[in-house]
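cache lookup: miss for this entity combination. No prior model stored, computing from scratch. Input as submitted by user K.M.:
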Amino acid sequence: MSATKIFNVIVMALYIQFSNLAFANGNGIVVFQSDFGLSDQAVSAMHGVALGVDKNLKVEDLTHDIPAYNIWEGAYRLDAVANFWPADTVFVSVVDPGVGSERKSVVLKTKSNHYFVTPDNGTLTLVAKRLGIAEVREIDEKVNRLKGSEASHTFHGRDVYAYTGARLAASAITFEQVGPILAPEVLSIPYEAARIDANKLIGGIPILDPAYGNVWTNIPMSLLLSLTKAKNYTTLYTQKFLVTVSQAGKFVLAETISFERSFAGVNEGQPLLYVNSLENLALALNQANFASKFNIQAGGEWRIEIVPK
Amino acid sequence: MSATKIFNVIVMALYIQFSNLAFANGNGIVVFQSDFGLSDQAVSAMHGVALGVDKNLKVEDLTHDIPAYNIWEGAYRLDAVANFWPADTVFVSVVDPGVGSERKSVVLKTKSNHYFVTPDNGTLTLVAKRLGIAEVREIDEKVNRLKGSEASHTFHGRDVYAYTGARLAASAITFEQVGPILAPEVLSIPYEAARIDANKLIGGIPILDPAYGNVWTNIPMSLLLSLTKAKNYTTLYTQKFLVTVSQAGKFVLAETISFERSFAGVNEGQPLLYVNSLENLALALNQANFASKFNIQAGGEWRIEIVPK
Amino acid sequence: MSATKIFNVIVMALYIQFSNLAFANGNGIVVFQSDFGLSDQAVSAMHGVALGVDKNLKVEDLTHDIPAYNIWEGAYRLDAVANFWPADTVFVSVVDPGVGSERKSVVLKTKSNHYFVTPDNGTLTLVAKRLGIAEVREIDEKVNRLKGSEASHTFHGRDVYAYTGARLAASAITFEQVGPILAPEVLSIPYEAARIDANKLIGGIPILDPAYGNVWTNIPMSLLLSLTKAKNYTTLYTQKFLVTVSQAGKFVLAETISFERSFAGVNEGQPLLYVNSLENLALALNQANFASKFNIQAGGEWRIEIVPK
């Protein structure tokens, strides 16, 4: 064997050797979400458990400011962000009012190859629908549980979910080793769908943009395009719409609002209809708070209707 | 030397070479805690200094929401989380009302091989007791201080603690190079210990769970087992206890509360006694706020008594 | 070729090979700042986009608690922290009330070799002055924009700034590939400069320390040294000064305050003048809130005068 050949063999062998430092099934990224806040040690304990599994993991956060026990908002945040993280990212979501009860602990693998480690309590409603269910497995807590944590029954986020998510992301276990396969379905929370009804768009208000008080609807821009197609507008921008909002059937707001490319399209303090970062219709005041001015909140009982003028 | 032998020698040599990328004494993880909040640049400056020491470090946080100057809560958070981080993790804790005064800047190495970089002002009270003191060293600020920061006397967290903690975690210095060895003791804050007194458990309320308003005691589950051993219960779960709480001798609460495996054991809004994630007894309302309902806070003057019914 | 020579060649070749894992122009660190808060998915989406560019990046934060639309405070925070991050760090700052309007999206390279990715709306006022402008380039959004995000006009922070900043830090693009070079200037917000006027120091209050209520001036310690040089004090510490504060010409405070090495120099609740972590003069109460006690805020219309007694 010549020196050159030896060299090539060695380089190849070492390449393989050091490539193994990279991760097999996961991509090495774990993203945490919870309703714990950042003021105590709970989030740091989850991060510590994850880096204890493998200190080469990237440990990141979605948010820990989900309102306590608000499974719907947890579902919403996961749905809003998942597509902006690379494939094979492992999300660990712990909004778990039923900790210790009989709700299942699961890992959802979506068709987009994202993983979601969470109690199956509705948290997966929206990602399952948007990204598609590839497979659901129940976490086998006999195997996938932080060693020494057996006496604690109230912090599954740390002892089971963080530990299992980190092991999956670090390829310490395969997806199959999470536990037994379940039927390809998740517990879903009902919510009002966006739709065209005659000459109107109808939808819900799943969330507010908390930093600015913008009102986010679940009506995709594509529905507005369908509705207005026959009108042959040169451009939708600056067109006016009658927007009505109601809560549980009770009238809250009716206002004529123009559709704008961005906030700068209207004067300071004026309302606009725009396309948010999720490609859905939203309402805002330029440099002011739409939701607080008009007393609008988010949730299943809220309904919005949009009619071209 | 055969090609195979050459190969083996080289693989070994390179393994050693690249293993050096890993860190010698520290494990490459620095965890920050402070009372700075996250709204200004202080925490980011500490992270920047750490990554300026070695950009391969993992820079993590415990919390930065310790109430201003609340050394006790800083001590509590460190104690609650340290064991969930791998050995050789370096904690940097900056709750430092006496910055610039004569309090010592130290690094505690515990018997569990965790490091704590902090002013010795009581912050180490609980980790020193739980994890055991292996060695205490005083930071030699002539050597272990960010270059160019000599004129600033008010941000030791960045200039001394972050810098020293990062250098220790990155193995830029050994523990010995921190500075001179001190007596193996730390400044300790007095607090009421948990104990059995005749037929009662007595203890304190070191902390509230801020996200949910649960009241955490310092009474370990093991004391409850000792107390109730003679009763030969089939199971402790659902057993009832008379719980009384007082502040500085003044009566605050007396309530009969059942011991439950988890929150789901009682109806919404009802109280329960349970084992928290630190294996201590705690009080909660299922999906509501125990502390605010009964006006209970945490601190040295609070006392809790638990009597089997 | 001897085995030793083969060994040396291979080690050198592999060293080069694995060194390439490091980054060319950027240093692999991206630091995010915004007015988004941490309660929704916006910050996590930016982090996800960055790690989608290259999962070996270090993704860090300055703060996301800039008050909504407060460009001045964004400028201030960048200026206060940049020097504590290593050269080649890429800062991505998104305080962008004019998103969608005609403000330019730029990358500033400073003479200190830091990069700032941001709308050119005043955010760069202070870092451009302190660190010096090496080169300014406009972001070519046709090339430097997250694939698939073209329909969204309201989240440039994620789609353009995070993506471009991450590509720069990961050396996926060179600085030249950001886009066309601009004149070496940035949009600057006017503010009152610190100066000596006869026997007085005059300056502004650019910011409060939000955690403690300390009042930070823009008067550097060096100006105090110049002013007091002729007095031949043995030490400045404990010297007394008449401090007056006014807002838009209206008197707010006049108080005799001593200059102290640190907070511990005065009794609890007493005021002091000290050098803050930016080497500027600042006002505080030892363990209490100066700004709220005396109703002082930050901003261009605030003026402070300091006269030796």
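stored under new cache key. The CA atoms of residues 88 and 113 of chain B lie 5 Å apart.
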